[in-house]
Amino acid sequence: MKLQKLHLRLKKAYAANVLRLHQLKIRLEHWRLRHGLKFAVLTLLTAVLFSVFSMPFLQCVAGGYFSSQESLAALRSLLGGTGAALIGAAAIAFSLVVFAMQTNVERMPHGLFRQLSSDTRLLGSFLGSFLTAIVVAGTSLIPDGTWAIPAIITAIWGIAVIVLLFLYAYRRALQLINPIEQLTIMSRVIQRDLQRWSRLADKAAILIREERQTAIFDADEEFHFNAPKARFYQDNAYWTVSAGQAIHYAISYAKRFAEQGDYEVTDSAFMHMMLINVAYCEAKRGTFVGVNPFFETPGSTDGFINTSLEQLRQTMQAALARGDERLAESTLRAIERLYGVYLRIEYPGRDRRKHHALLASGYMESAIESVISHNMPDLMMEGIRLMGRASKISLDHTSPTEIVGMAEKIASLSYVGVLKTSHQPVTLTAFEQLADFTYDLLVKGKNELGYPVSQLRSAVTEAAKRFLETPDTPLGSRHRNTLGPYFSSTSASSLLQRLKLLVNQLLGASADNVRASEIIHNIESWADQIYIPQKELLLLAIQKRSSFTFDAVGWIVGISELLNALSNAPACTEHLRDNLRRHAFWLVSMLSWLPDDRESVIFAENYSVTESLFEAASNGYQQDCLEFYERCQKLLIAWAKKGGRHETGWGILEASIKALTALAIDEGTHGAMTVLKARFREMLASEGAPSAEVRVRAATNLARNANQMRRTHAVCSVDRALAQQDQVAVRELLLEMAGVLTVEQPIH
User: Fold this and answer.
1) Domain chopping of the chain, boundaries
2) H or E element: which one contains 572?
3) 150-154, 424-428, 660-664: which has the minimum mean pLDDT?
4) Where on the phi/psi map is residue 8: left (φ > 0), alpha (ψ -120 to 50), or beta?
5) How far is CA 710 from CA 64, 707, 724, 731, 746, in A?
6) Contact, 231 vs 209, CB < 8 A?
7) DSSP code per residue over 387-438
8) How much is the pTM?
9) What's the rounded Cα separation, in Å, for the pair 354 and 362?
10) Which of 67, 252, 269, 732 is most buried per CB count within 10 Å?
């Protein structure tokens, strides 16, 4: 036993020491990356100073040795031979390095090959080593022995410098034959070139004098049109030639290395393509021309941007043609990055629609659509995620009206799961992105959202209806799993649960919180007429006997409760409060449209319609939404009538009575119980009411429940509520309701 404990302690100590050593290595590596060059330079300077200051001492110790002509001649011969050897070594070494480098980069585009094969750093290191070798050889010309020690130290340092230059040239050559480093060099050169053109344009704009014919743009104080700068670029149309060539080079690298399976280089090529576009947009800042919805605006079309997007479109086609899914995925990511770059372009005038970003989004949508016929569901899923991410980013830069089209496209792409069963995960991904976009739209939207949310809601509803037309699976419902990200009432990551967390935060916001008021207004706009599509989905789910019925009912109740709670937020104005409660009222009223045929009633009650109505009513009463509460009571009575009309096996009539009893007791007034009995008598007297046989059976069960009510046996939410109430009051009211059913005196 002791040996086992000792062994365990040793293992723990060993593991702790290994972790400490690993942490120390990480810290040293981090320090080296940050301060390694500084430390090396400091060490070298220290050695140089030490050698300089040690010369007098060395002269005193060994200077006398070179006083004789024989010793001095031998030193001169040594220094001369060493210098000559170093000159030859420098020439041979750099010939081999340059030859090897040129051989490795000979397959690159001609312009880039010419640039890298004449790299100034590499040639500079050769020139430096050659000149240093000449200096070493020149030390053999010392006149007398007093120069011996300085000559020796100079030769030693010369040899050290040449060795360092050789090593630097070797590493530089390795960098130049590294395709990722080649792309980096190319990108830096192009960025510097574009920056140079930008500086020239800014200076030229000061000198150029022209008539001010752009008053419509100059009226904008923040983003005015820089006409002189635009004139300079127009007169020097070739200023983007090198940048355009770089785009072609990057695409060439991406395709060539994708064929070799080196997708790291492909991703790097697309990344540097994006950086070049960033530099281009920055250089052209102030000269972009917006579009006019009524007529074509001269200069609104940008050739460089069109070239970049067109090159990516062709790359996407080539990737799909040869079935290269990785290259296609990288291409989609590249388009998404360019979309983010173009979103930051500012346009003059009042209409600042991001038409270049919209152009990029059109290319992205077309590229993803082209995947459908190639049976690549994983690629489609990634493309839809990229579209979702792009739409969320765009909320920070443009109005929701401009980007709702992308959300509609995501919804339409989800149809592929309807056509192909193997593409069902594509539909799931689409609804995940639609849920994320809806949430971000409600949180980030700052303008009127009436049109965007109505279009988004229509797109989501149509996509859900299309998918509900497909067969459902009995176990692990295909409908619920696929539509769950948007409609689930139980998933922690669904839209409903995220909105509940948001509402809880809004309830804690102060009354003067402007942002909270804006979000509440956005939610109110989103909830306006939301009952219409929800009614369609609920009825279709029941018609198709889909398990999605559970989520449809739960979503109606959950959103209604959420709207009622939000109406009590301190930051909610009186106008918004009335609208939110009205939306909740109309939404929960959709449960009155449940079909009344026997099969539909049985199917719906499988998903706890009675309990859902009870929970909605109870929550409405707690939120002081009395109109909503009364509506839920009436819905419960109507549902008792529909369910009691048939032999369902669920006991809907008695379950509804128990739910209404619990609600009446919660009110705690005699009037509430009186109203309940009056409404129930009215229902029983109406046409289509439950038959006498059903009433008697329900009354018998109610009487049995009244006499056997126990706190520990509560299963459903209604029974739990009754078990927590005054048992005497519960028993009396249940017996009275049983009497109402039998049109007799209360049963004792």
Assistant:
1) 1-53, 54-177, 179-207+227-370, 417-587, 594-748
2) none
3) 150-154
4) alpha
5) 115, 9, 9, 11, 21
6) no
7) HHHHHHHHTTTS-HHHHHHHHHHHHHHTTHHHH-GGGHHHHHHHHHHHHHHH
8) 0.81
9) 12
10) 269
